[in-house]
Amino acid sequence: MVKIEFLGPIGKESIELDVKNLKDVAKELNKDENISIWLEKSAVALNDMIVNSLDIELKDGDKISILPPVCGG
Amino acid sequence: MEIRFQFYLLFAVDDMVEIYKGPLDVKDIISRWLDECDGRNWGAFIPFIGIVRQEDGIEALSFDIYEPILLKWFQEWQDKAQKKGAIVKMAHSLGDVPIFTSSYIAAVMSPKRRVALELIDEFVEDFKANAPIWKYDVIDGKRIYAQTRSTAMDGAGLMSKKD
């Protein structure tokens, strides 16, 4: 299982998914309209590192974070 | 009317990143950072102090922070600064920050003026675009995500690509 956390204003509780790679995560998350509207403008982190490809295999216990648009300061 | 705040430091990392619950105690933070410059032969200390403005009927701004990625983002900047002989520092608020108080301080210390001026500009701009911090307006006690002022981070949209 991998854990998906939705940061900041997305306002959704973390979920766990039984998936093999990041592509599967994207597929699953796009099924939920309340999440998919955030995905087009959100960055993705795997174990707290921002990733730039979905061709990444996952292992049990991995943490994926969805980071919506930011505004510090 | 005198407004007083209690200042709460939540955590600090290597004396470089400081996160506070609520507004920043600007004079205390700047004074401590200046003390650190003593005897270190820095030629320039350039702070940027962000203050919450009264506009659009807000009573405060409010912030969420994702600390693990903030610290990594910051460390990359520290490494970049170090290559130029400089150091960067920052303090930021978590939670509500009333108007007229400060939510963000960044600073660069460097042997040379030019390096510090350029670094503070790049650092503050990249902070706005890529530090994992989310801003909300507080109006009538309600938190409203500052969506139109927010910027999608580098690499955003990765999961919206359907194949």
Structure write-up:
The complex is a heterodimer of chains A (73) and B (163). Chain A has helices at residues 22-29, 33-39; strands at residues 2-6, 15-17, 43-46, 49-50, 63-67. Chain A is α+β, with helices and mostly antiparallel strands. Chain A has a single domain (2-67), classed as Ubiquitin-like (UB roll). In chain A, strands 2-1-5-3-4 form a five-stranded mixed sheet, with no helix packed on it. In chain A, a hairpin with a 2-residue loop joins strand 3 and strand 4. The radius of gyration of chain A is 12 Å and the shape is globular. The termini of chain A are far apart. By secondary structure, chain B is α+β, with helices and mostly antiparallel strands. Chain B has one domain: Aldehyde Oxidoreductase, domain 3 (Alpha-Beta Complex). Chain B is 29% helix and 35% strand. Chain B has three helices and eight strands; from the N terminus they run ββαββαββαββ. In chain B, strands 1, 2, 3, 4, 5, 6, 7 and 8 form an eight-stranded mixed sheet that branches. In chain B, strand 5 and strand 6 form a beta hairpin. Chain B is globular and about 50 Å long. In chain B, 36% of the residues are buried. Chains A and B meet through helix 1, strand 3, strand 4 and strand 5 of A and helix 2, helix 3 and strand 7 of B.
How far do the termini of chain B sit from each other?
60 Å
Nearest-angstrom radius of gyration of chain B?
A: 17 Å
CATH fold node name of chain A: Ubiquitin-like (UB roll)
Instruction: State the fourth-level CATH superfamily of chain B.
Output: Molybdopterin biosynthesis MoaE subunit
How much helicity do the residues of chain B have?
25-40%
Instruction: Give the percentage of residues in beta strands of chain B.
Output: 25-35%
Task: Write down the oligomeric state.
Answer: heterodimer
Taking pLDDT < 50 over at least 5 consecutive residues as the criterion, the unreliable ranges of chain B are none
Pathway (chain B): Cofactor biosynthesis; molybdopterin biosynthesis
Family (chain B): Belongs to the MoaE family.
Subunit structure (chain B): Heterotetramer of 2 MoaD subunits and 2 MoaE subunits. Also stable as homodimer. The enzyme changes between these two forms during catalysis.
Organism (chain B): Sulfurovum sp. enrichment culture clone C5
